[in-house]
Amino acid sequence: MASPGGDWFVELRDVEFSYGPVQVLFGVSFTVERGEVLGLLGTNGAGKSTVLRVLAGLEVPRHGSVTFDGRDVTGVPAEKLSAAGVGLVMGGKAIFPDLTVRENLQLAGFTVRTGLQDRMSRELDRFPQLKQRFDTKAGSLSGGEQQQLGLAKALLLDPTLLCIDELSLGLSPVIVAELFDVVRRVNADGCTCVLVEQSLNVAAQLCGRAVFLEKGAVKFDGPTADLLERGDLARAVFLGAKNGHKPETATKRSRKRAR
Questions:
Q1: Contact at 8 Å (CB) between 230 and 247?
Q2: Which of 166, 164, 153 is nearest to 119 (CA)?
C-alpha cells in the first residue's frame, strides 16, 4: 500500500473478479497516489490487464470497490469513466487497423463537443510521425507508430488517469525510450499513470513504485528498487536483456508488429 496519509487518487480494495467460473483476481488491494507513475507487474496471466479493465470500467468486480478521485466508481461504465478522466491504452487493441490515423483520432474524439481539431493538431505535434502518416491505414503503421497512435487517442481526451497495457511490447529499446519520454512529459503535466509491464527492467526506467501480481493476488507493493532486490519475485518476471527487450510469450507473439 502507499504510505499512510498519501494523496491517494485511485484505490482498489479487496477486488475479486471472474471470467465465468474462473476466478482471476483474489482480493486485490492497492492505491495510486496523485501524480505518480505506478508499475503493475507480474508474469503472463497474473491478472494485470484485468486490473486495468476493472479500473477503466470495462469489467465489474464481483466483490470489492474501486475509488477514483474520491468517488466510488465501482460498476460505473467505461464511457462515463472516460468522460471523468480515465484513459486506457489497451495492449494490442488500441487502434482500428482498417481506419486511417485521421479516422482513428476522429473516432476517439467523438465525444469532444468543441476544439477537436485543435486537440488532434496537438497530438500530431506530439507524435510527428503520425502527421506524416495521417491518411494511412493504421494497420499499415509500424509497431512503434501504432503505439504512438494508441497513446494519442487516449491523450486526445485529456485524461487525469492514464492506464497503459504493455507499452513496450515487441518494440526496440529506442522506440520504447521515445514512448517513455512522452509518458514522462504527460506525467509532469499532472497526469497520474498506471503501466502494466512484464519486464521489471523496463518498468524500473519509469515507475518509482510497483505492485507485483502473482496468480491474481498482490505479492508486493513498494518502491521498484526494492522489488529489484527481491530475488524470489524478480525471477518470476521477465527481466529482459540489458537493452530493455523482453522475451515474448507464445500468446503475445501474434500481436507483435515489427517496426
A1: no
A2: 153
